[in-house]
Fold this protein.
Amino acid sequence: MNKVITISRQYGSGGREIGAKLAQKLGIPFYDDELIARAAKESGFAEAAFDNVEKRATNSFLYSIAMGMNAYGNQDIGFTHLSLDDQLYLAQTNIIRKVAQEGPCVIVGRCADYILREQENTINIFIWAGMQARKERVIRLYNVAKNKAEDELIKADKRRANYYNYHANEKWGKAENYHLSLRSDYIGIDHAVESIIHYLKSAEGGISRI
Amino acid sequence: MNKVITISRQYGSGGREIGAKLAQKLGIPFYDDELIARAAKESGFAEAAFDNVEKRATNSFLYSIAMGMNAYGNQDIGFTHLSLDDQLYLAQTNIIRKVAQEGPCVIVGRCADYILREQENTINIFIWAGMQARKERVIRLYNVAKNKAEDELIKADKRRANYYNYHANEKWGKAENYHLSLRSDYIGIDHAVESIIHYLKSAEGGISRI
């Protein structure tokens, strides 16, 4: 199995747990969004950001940054003109590309599907679930107050969608951006892992004629 | 298996064929969009449409129709004020509800996922595929000219999205409207059928804790 698997997920859908179990079953590394963010921060991200500005100038996110920079009248575009968030995003981009090049792995969140869109061995997964199941999950596992759970879920999804829509040129949660998308609460965590493995095995022969 | 399975699909993704094979494997009836449309036409749809206007007055599609009618200053809302397309949609709605109540089946297209959204045993599937595979498929199977294939595909998808967005209060192709969404050209038609059966079997116990 020579695949890099990205997982995008609604908050409380079990997507991270599914990703972790999948990586364990496949015996490959697992990188969640917090790990990627921490790695980017620790790497000292100035260098990484410069690297990307040059490589990906046609990207509209970067184009808009560049436009902002030109407003400074500064042709010698400087890293310090980027917002901290944008610097961090660019550093994360490099970390994600690096781990994806090292070999098969599972990466959760951080627009990894978008960042790796040109890497042919990438398989993108989306996990979602019904509101009731997600509420129960975040109350049970993340200590969210019962009367605030729904509000928290809606806000978290909005943050994820905004993050994605800002950095990628795509809408978060469009079915055709994912090879496989699953509603997890109809089948449970373990069956979701199995479904993904089934898809991966079926995809091993390369693109099929349909 | 007590499920009604709806299939939404991109043109040329093999979604109808996947649905037909799925129905055959499960030994349940298969209704495609053409069959539903023909049945609605043959049923004489005036009666069906009336029925729905009364039952579903909170639906925004119907609300907008009702607003249009009021412009006639006519409180006695008449069926003949509906466009032919809207009449046909309402008749199809009734056909879809009827077949879904008769027992397990596979229904392709016609907003069936939206129409049956309150019927708890419905499982919604979305099938899509890469542009190259879809092109090859429509050239091979539907006699579409090579140099017109991409254009035809884009237009057909737009028609499907417009039809859905007009009649449903939802965007076509949003991952969270489908229990399962699959990219078919990575795994082929038969594996896609198997993936769906795997999901259905996993879902048999009812909603799982996640």
User: Anything to note?
Assistant: Residues 84-102 of chain A form the longest helix (19 residues). The beta strands of chain A are 4-9, 30-31, 105-108, 122-128, 180-183. The mean pLDDT of chain A is 84. Chain A touches chain B at residues 10, 13-14, 123, 126, 128-130, 133-134, 136-137, 173-176, 178-189, 191, 194-195, 198-199, 202-203, 207-210 (CB under 8 Å).
